[in-house]
Amino acid sequence: MSIKSRVVLGSAVALFALSACNEKDAAKTASAPAAASATASSQDVAATVNGTPISKKQLDQIMQQQASQGMPDTPDTRKMVIDSLAMQIIVAQQAASKGLDKAPEVTEQLEMNKQSILANAFVKDYIKTATVSDADLKAEYDKLKSTEYKARHILVEKEDEAKDIIAKIKKDVKAFDGLAKSKSKDPGSKDKGGDLGWFNPRGMVPEFGAAVAKLEKGKFTEEPVKSQFGYHVIILDDSRPATVSAFEDVKAGLTQQVQQQNLKKMLDDLKAKAKIEITPAPAAVPASAPGLSITPVPTTPAPAAPAAASASASADAAKK
Fold first, then answer.
1. Which CATH number does the domain housing residue 195 bear?
2. Contact present, 116 and 16 (Cβ < 8 Å)
3. Which residues constitute the domain of residue 117?
4. Total-model pTM
5. Which residue in 156, 163, 273, 305 has a CA-CA distance of 20 to 30 Å to 130?
6. Same domain membership, residue 168 and residue 53
């Protein structure tokens, strides 16, 4: 995952957590607005809605998120956000007054939101507190000092197609360019004769990168290289040492990268140690065999369901 995508993910997580908090706070304070109001001083409150406060900190967080998406932080935009939060609180209060906060489907969603917020909080705390040693950063930096390759490839769907192409370029390697233009399924390189330009093999799918690293200059893969995209025929045009920025220039990015790697390893370990039991789906009722006639056994009619149970069943059916 790139640094940019992690930042975007972090923003989405923050917005989701904030939204969930808004819903939870609105539901909780609907029954006791005075108590909720007493917990926040007037200096910390941006607005109140039926006694429920909207904190300045909460508003500032939303404005920061909106600013990152291009919305200016102005008095007008702040008023717009407050109006939106106010409407959310008003509707949540109405829902709570009708007892909807006690409905099974609502409490289930609130519990799921709670778990999501706690999980996000754990990840944020880990990123905030986890340290990365210089030794680990240096080791990651050394991986950047690899070799770059300039190669061409032809991507096809079937192994037999790839083998046929290999047979043709064994007879005439100059045919590679024309075969790429006519056969390759890679829209980004086929019109350039399969040319991928210079690249680091770590940026390619593992099977492709490993195959390129084994080739000698001017040689091609004599067996199709299978990846998730299909079958590749690759020819190596050149190689060179990778150009790497100074350690201090990339240290911040490497720190985030190593933290993410360590976080993933820790989460994988937690999952491996957890007891996860998946309830099997109910077995499908087998259809009657052709030609067989099954006579139903008479049964005593079941007593009519109470009115409340019938209403509950109808509601469940409507939800489905």
1. 3.10.50.40
2. yes
3. 3-129
4. 0.51
5. 273
6. no
Indicate the range of 13-17, 66-70, 166-170, 205-209 predicted with least confidence.
13-17
Boundary-marking domain end, from 241, 265, 284: 241
| Residue 75 forms part of a structural domain | yes
Place of tokens 């969930």: 20
Q: Rounded to whole angstroms, how far apart are CA atoms 144 and 141?
A: 5
Cα Rg, the chain, nearest whole Å: 31
The secondary structure element, H or E, covering residue 6 is helix 3-29
DSSP codes of every residue in 33-96: HHHHHHTS-GGGEEEEETTEEEEHHHHHHHHHHHHHTT----HHHHHHHHHHHHHHHHHHHHHH
- Residues 151, 124, single domain; the answer is no
Amino acid code (one letter) for 189: S
**Secondary element (H or E) of residue 101:** none
Q: What is the distance between the alpha carbons of residues 188 and 194, in angstroms, rounded to a whole number?
A: 8
pLDDT in tens, 201-249: 988 999 999 999 999 999 999 999 999 999 999 999 999 998 889 999 9
Query: How many residues appear in the chain?
Result: 320
Judge whether 89 lies within some domain.
yes
Total domains in the fold of the chain: 2
Helix (H) or strand (E) holding 111: helix 104-129
